[in-house]
Specification:
20 strands; 16 helices
Length: 482
């Protein structure tokens, strides 16, 4: 019989006057793999952080291996092998795998270890976990899934007893997921417990032994594997049958071409990419390199391409005002307010002096941003630490930055990347509503299903080349996949 590793009882958390968890009880045994299922604001992240001591648990009862613990915090949790993984920011991208796995914080002179010994130890650990990554590989050359594995191996090297993965597994594709299923089985067989906090029902069902459902600040259900049912779990998670269907795509009534992309070295009379006014066009990509290249093209940083808008060549200085790009890597200014983070770009684009009257800024916020994100901005305004905004919050902030500048074309660069399925659908619906106001839109994505759901047509871009164009009215998803 498995030994209980951790238990918390009577957990109530309040943040900025709002209750995010109420009288919750949660436990995990040694070698358990538990999924914590919940929507974006359900309280699942707060629960995951509380287990790792990142929340104030003074009013709760905490037990470690059935022994009561006073003042449970992140330091005590780390000393007992509890690791919280939310993103990959703690990796040293310029260093190799062995350096990232075995280098310990505050190691002093021990940093200068014998390289052969360091690589030998790392290689042995990778073999034990059956991870096919070379210990001398530069981390920046690894895929997202491989970098995640490096973080997991690093935790194992530091005697991990519990791994908490926050909104990670839903971002892994099908082929990568199989590798993680095997890896998680090897970890649990070593007695390492795993918590997967996520909003993807199907993925958690495949990975977990038990699923705890968090809804509206309460533990709504705890279900074992033999009772898993996607429809029931989804219903428990949202309180009703989930409605995640998007509205039918609207057709662009105007046949005028709004934007064209030409290659300078190719036939200048044949555009590589064309968008009609008011339409929603998709660009399907297959690698992160393709996404980066397209982002540089639309921002004018790639000199091999020429952008034509309304039959006029766009100069680089005009791109920021004409084309609004919603990028993946959002820059947050922690010393500025939420409003200032949104309006800063507007001031740069709309004024040579970088300053606009407050009345005009307020009107722009109300008419362009709050029209679509009123309740979301109100909720974000209550959060003091803007630098710690969740990924979804940052995406809303970035879209508002684009909207307030009132561009003629909006370009969304892989906007659903690493967002859970429920929040992805909600955000995609918002993007669709924005496009229906008449804003010409371009969606760059590696997900063909998302492109087919909202786009009028889809272009294929791979290996730095446009390789095909399909109308989603003529071809379905299955035909495009073939």
């Amino acid at each position: 019989m498995k030994e209980e590793l951790f238990r918390v009882e009577g957990l109530t958390l309040i943040e900025h006057g709002t209750q995010i968890l109420s009288n919750a009880t949660f436990y995990i045994r040694t070698g358990d793999l538990i999924g914590v299922l919940g929507q974006y604001t359900s309280g699942k992240r707060a629960l995951a952080q509380a287990v790792c001591g990142m929340r104030d648990l003074r009013n709760a009862r905490v037990y470690l291996r059935e022994q009561p613990v006073e003042n449970w915090n992140s330091i005590i949790a780390k000393e007992n092998g509890f690791f919280y993984i939310k993103d990959l920011q703690s990796l040293f991208l310029e260093q190799d795998v062995a350096f990232n796995v075995l280098l310990k914080p505050h190691s002093g002179v021990s940093m200068w270890l014998n390289q052969k010994r360091l690589h030998r130890q790392c290689s042995q650990l990778l073999k034990e976990l059956a991870i096919k990554i070379e210990e001398n590989s530069p981390v920046k050359q690894l895929s997202y899934a491989e970098q995640l594995m490096v973080l997991i191996v690093k935790a194992v090297a530091q005697n991990a007893t519990l791994l908490v993965l926050d909104n990670i597994v839903s971002t892994i594709n099908e082929s990568q997921l199989k590798n993680f299923i095997d890896l998680f089985q090897r970890l649990t067989s070593r007695g390492i417990s795993i918590i997967l906090a996520d909003g993807d029902v199907e993925t958690l069902m495949r990975l977990s032994e038990h699923i705890v459902v968090v809804r509206e600040d309460r533990i709504a259900s705890r279900c074992s594997k033999e009772l898993f049912n996607a429809a029931i779990l989804s219903t428990i998670m949202v309180g009703k049958k989930p409605d995640i269907q998007l509205k039918p795509k609207t057709k662009a009534e105007n046949s005028k071409i709004k934007l064209q992309l030409f290659g300078k070295s190719a036939n200048k009379s044949e555009p590589l990419f064309s968008v009609y006014e008011g339409a929603f066009s998709g660009i399907l990509v297959f690698s992160e390199a393709d996404i980066s290249r397209l982002s540089e093209i639309f921002s004018g940083k790639d000199s091999e391409y020429q952008i034509i808008m309304d039959e006029k060549k766009l100069k680089r200085q005009d791109l920021k005002s004409k084309i609004g790009i919603v990028n993946e890597h959002t820059v947050i200014f922690p010393n500025l307010s939420l409003k200032e983070n949104i309006t800063l770009q507007y001031q740069k684009v709309s004024s040579l002096l970088g300053w606009i009257r407050g009345r005009k800024t307020k009107a722009a916020m109300n008419n362009r941003c709050k029209e679509h994100f009123c309740s979301e901005l109100r909720a974000l305004h209550q959060k003091d630490l803007i630098a710690n905004l969740a990924r979804g919050d940052k995406k809303i902030l970035e879209i508002c930055r684009m909207l307030i500048c009132q561009p003629e074309v909006a370009v969304y660069v892989n906007p659903m990347y690493r967002l859970d399925s429920i929040f992805s659908k909600r955000l995609l619906t918002k993007i669709q509503e924005i496009q229906e106001t008449g804003l010409t839109s371009v969606l760059i994505s590696n997900n063909i299903h998302i492109c087919c759901a909202v786009c009028n047509d889809i272009f294929i871009f791979t290996d730095n080349k446009f390789r095909g164009h399909f109308s989603t009215d003529e071809y379905g998803t299955e035909e495009l996949l073939q």
